[in-house]
Specification:
It contains six helices and four strands. By secondary structure, the protein is of the alpha/beta class.
Length: about 150
């Protein structure tokens, strides 16, 4: 089973984890970490590395961070040499969203880490919509079908 780790500024990761649990139920090998105001980035890196090791059952770990280039991302990237030294298979996806994480926990037993990473990114893209424009376009298309 691929482990899943969510990391964010503040409680976003914990909130997404809570929402995933509400929607699909309790999950094994699924954790969250938060960077809190005043927290040392080195402590986040240590917590992240230790958590990633505990989540790795041999199939790899998929890490979601909230922002590309921000502290959770940077802490993740600082772990890459250590993961490499341990032969851990880890991927980091930026721009974490609920649809991406639901996709990850629901498909992690049937896909490789590389396939799961790609599918989660696609899910993130597909779930960004202008809902009002979609409705207006749909209504316009329906009215054009009426003779």
């Amino acid at each position: 089973m691929i482990g899943v780790l969510l990391i964010s500024h503040g409680k976003m990761a914990l909130g997404i984890k809570d929402s995933v649990t509400m929607i699909v139920g309790e999950q094994d090998k699924f954790e969250s970490l938060s960077l809190n105001p005043g927290q040392d980035i080195n402590q986040l890196k240590t917590d992240l590395f230790n958590c990633s090791k505990s989540l790795d059952s041999g199939d790899g770990v998929l890490i979601f961070v909230d922002l590309y280039g921000a502290s959770p991302y940077n802490a993740s990237m600082q772990c890459v040499p250590q993961w490499h030294d341990l032969d851990m298979n880890v991927r980091v996806i930026t721009g974490m969203s609920l649809p991406m994480v639901i996709n990850a926990v629901c498909n992690r037993d049937s896909l490789s880490l590389q396939e799961l990473t790609k599918e989660c990114i696609e899910s993130g893209h597909e779930n960004i919509q202008d809902a009002i424009a979609n409705i207006m376009h749909s209504n316009k298309s329906e009215s054009e079908d009426d003779y």
